Amino acid sequence: MPDSVSKMTLDDAINAAELARANLAVAQRNYDLVKAGAWSYDVRSQEAQYNALMKGAASARALLGKYTVGAPVDGVVLSITATIGSYVSSQGTLESYSAGAAPLLVMGTAEEYTAVRCYVDEILIAKLHDIESLEATMFIRGTEVQIPLEFVRVQPLVSPKIELSNQRTERVDVRVLPIIFRFKKPENTLIYPGQLVDVYMRVP
Q: Helix (H, G, I), strand (E, B), or coil: what is residue 144?
């Protein structure tokens, strides 16, 4: 995060990296010139200087990387839990709702399909004879949008229900079976990860 360290410290790290890179380039050129026709002592001296500058450049890059948050792959930032002035550690940052550690960033990939996880009440599991042939439709709350879903897989572990919709008639003392579907995001329809939707399934 930009404000997790002072700007002066970050600027010093950037300047050190740039200086080491420039010195490395000069040493490389001098080394090439000397190696073309010089005494063996000069060649060894330039090699030693070149290796020293290589290590200096690596050290400067490591220092700069210490103050940089990066991702190994391209993706979309879904959530940033830290704010300006927040303390950030290797475990993440303090999440005010749960008073526990939360990831600094939550990222996802920009894929063609979007997944939706449905939770089937344990008393209805016995009716799912042919799960792979399920026909499901998703309804976005507050709209009349209906999106057909494509079956992906079942998470074969029945677990306590943790996703709540805050409906007065909702039961919370049940166990559920997660089923994953996917769909192509329709045009001119706003759908975001984490959004609560209604899914209706029909057993063939």
A: coil
Token pair of 61 as six digits: 């890059």
Domain holding 140: CATH number? 2.40.30
**What is the spatial distance between Cα 135 and Cα 151, in angstroms, rounded to a whole number?**
8
Tokens of 194: 């984490």
Q: In the chain, what is the straight-line distance between the N-terminal and C-terminal CA atoms, in Å?
A: 51
Domain hosting 55: range is 7-66
Global pTM reads 0.55
- Pinpoint the alpha helices (H) of the chain: 7-36, 40-66
With CA atoms as reference, report the closest residue to 103 among 127, 75, 71, 81.
Answer: 81
* 3-state secondary structure (DSSP) of residue 161: coil
Q: pLDDT tens per residue, the chain (204 residues)?
A: 455 667 777 788 888 888 888 888 888 888 877 777 656 777 788 888 899 999 999 999 888 888 777 777 788 888 887 777 777 777 777 777 667 777 878 887 777 788 899 988 888 888 888 888 888 999 988 888 889 999 999 988 898 877 666 565 566 668 899 999 999 888 888 888 888 898 998 877
Specify the number of domains making up the chain: 3
